């Protein structure tokens, strides 16, 4: 098991490097933070001197080629390659050195510090939404399969397809507005519709959890909707296939109680497709959190990445994508390990 985990972690390295190269090329080709900053400076009606433009390019490392910028972003060093434009860094770039690069918002903004503060806010929402979507999907999928072609099955199928058809941002806004009107109607503030907490993460872990729970409910429901709908269909199909298998029929023919057959034989095997789909749901949650955080006023990675996109902040966007990639790869690793728990025929040697 340990050897398997180490081998998978080592395989993550080239995957992360390859995906970071692709992301950097796409981001760098689609945005020009230097031109955007020059345009903002020109709004005052005065011509921006070339010295100011050169200073902006030097601070953002846009006085260098794209390959050099990527190498600097990754390593923070010029020592391994001789470039045409030789120069020293400002000490604010190099992921392997713990520096995420300069921000277009100014030298006073530390991308690494912003990421570290916002990461746990977003991770809490993403994990809550993923766990909720998986749990609800398993429950509804199993019920639909056990009560196949019943009114319950048709009702759950209709709800699932309705959830798939609804855009996440639309449902989140609708959910927020409904909570606001319900608070007004009941003259209470039970549903928190803006922000991630009122204590600012001050106090004991239990106090922080209790304080943030009301703020977590609505974003979690909105973010978990699409993931639940897709996984419930997979769970239903998998459960039906297992229930019609020979070993389940044999167990029932031998007089094993139906509850025991369902819990110890059918459900365990039927959960394998969900273990495969879970990392995909995690990736979807990392993508959907951008919209959800904007709607509910969360100050997490999603809102930060949205602002980075608006301002063409290359290194901030790269930080978000790299963190998202690491989270998804860890989810894939956990999914692979769950195979050995769910299927006794699988052994990691």
Q: What is this structure's SSE topology?
A:
Blueprint: H1 2-30, H2 33-41, H3 50-59, H4 66-75, E1 93-94, E2 99-100, H5 111-146, H6 151-165, H7 168-186, H8 205-243, H9 246-253, H10 258-270, H11 272-296, H12 301-311, H13 314-342
Antiparallel strand pairs: 1-2
Helix pairs in contact: 1-13, 5-6, 5-8, 5-11, 5-13, 6-8, 7-8, 7-11, 8-10, 8-11, 11-12, 11-13, 12-13
Summarize the structure in words:
- The protein is mainly alpha-helical.
- The protein folds into 2 domains: 2-100, no CATH class; 111-342, MetI-like (MetI-like fold, Orthogonal Bundle).
- Helices cover 72% and strands 1% of the residues.
- The protein is built from 13 helices and 2 strands, in the order ααααββααααααααα.
- The protein has helices at residues 2-30, 33-41, 50-59, 66-75, 111-146, 151-165, 168-186, 205-243, 246-253, 258-270, 272-296, 301-311, 314-342, and strands at residues 93-94, 99-100.
- A hairpin with a 4-residue loop joins β1 and β2.
- α5 (111-146) runs parallel beside α8 and α7 (168-186) crosses α8.
- It is globular.
- The model is unreliable at 80-85 (pLDDT under 50).
Attribute tags:
2 domains, 349 residues, globular, two-stranded antiparallel sheet, mainly alpha, single chain, MetI-like fold, 13 helices
Q: Which architecture of the largest domain would the CATH scheme give at its second level?
A: Orthogonal Bundle
How big is the Rg? Answer: 25 Å
CATH class of the largest domain equals Mainly Alpha
Count every helix, treating DSSP H or I runs of 4 or more residues as helices: 13
Question: How much helix, percentage-wise, in residues?
Answer: over 70%
Global geometry: globular
Structural class: mainly alpha
């Amino acid at each position: 098991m340990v050897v398997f985990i180490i081998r998978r972690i080592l395989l993550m390295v080239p995957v992360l490097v390859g995906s970071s190269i692709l992301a950097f090329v796409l981001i760098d080709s689609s945005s020009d933070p230097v031109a955007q900053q020059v345009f903002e400076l020109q709004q005052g009606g005065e011509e921006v001197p070339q010295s100011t433009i050169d200073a902006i390019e030097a601070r953002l490392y846009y006085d260098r080629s794209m390959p050099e910028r990527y190498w600097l972003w990754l390593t923070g060093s010029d020592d391994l390659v001789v470039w045409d434009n030789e120069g020293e860094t400002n000490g604010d770039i190099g992921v392997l050195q713990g520096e995420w690069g300069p921000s277009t918002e100014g030298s006073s903004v530390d991308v690494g510090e912003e990421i570290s503060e916002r990461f746990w806010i977003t991770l809490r929402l993403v994990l809550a939404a993923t766990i909720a979507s998986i749990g609800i999907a398993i429950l509804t999928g199993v019920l639909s399969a056990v009560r196949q072609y019943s009114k319950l099955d048709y009702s759950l199928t209709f709800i699932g397809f309705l959830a798939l058809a609804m855009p996440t941002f639309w449902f989140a806004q609708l959910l927020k507005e409904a909570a606001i009107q319900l608070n007004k109607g009941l003259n209470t503030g039970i549903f928190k519709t803006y922000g991630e907490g009122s204590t600012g993460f001050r106090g004991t872990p239990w106090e922080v959890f209790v304080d943030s729970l009301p703020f977590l409910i609505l974003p979690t429901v909105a973010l978990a909707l699409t993931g639940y709908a897709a996984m419930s269909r997979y769970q239903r199909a998998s459960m039906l296939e297992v229930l019609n298998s020979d070993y389940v029929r044999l167990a029932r023919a031998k007089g094993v109680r139906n509850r025991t057959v369902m819990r110890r034989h059918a459900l365990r095997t039927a959960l394998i497709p969900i273990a495969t789909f879970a990392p995909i749901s995690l990736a979807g949650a990392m993508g959907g959190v951008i919209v959800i955080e904007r709607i509910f006023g969360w100050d997490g990675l999603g809102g930060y990445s949205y602002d980075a996109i608006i301002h063409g902040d290359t290194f901030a966007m790269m930080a978000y994508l790299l963190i998202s990639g690491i989270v998804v790869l860890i989810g894939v690793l956990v999914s692979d390990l769950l195979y050995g728990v769910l299927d006794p025929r699988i052994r990691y040697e």
